[in-house]
Amino acid sequence: MSDVLLTIPEIDRRIAAIRENLRELIEQAAAFSGAADEERTSERIAEQEEELERLTKQRDALAKGKA
Question: Which stretches are tagged as biased composition: Basic and acidic residues (predicted)?
Answer without folding.
Answer: 37-67
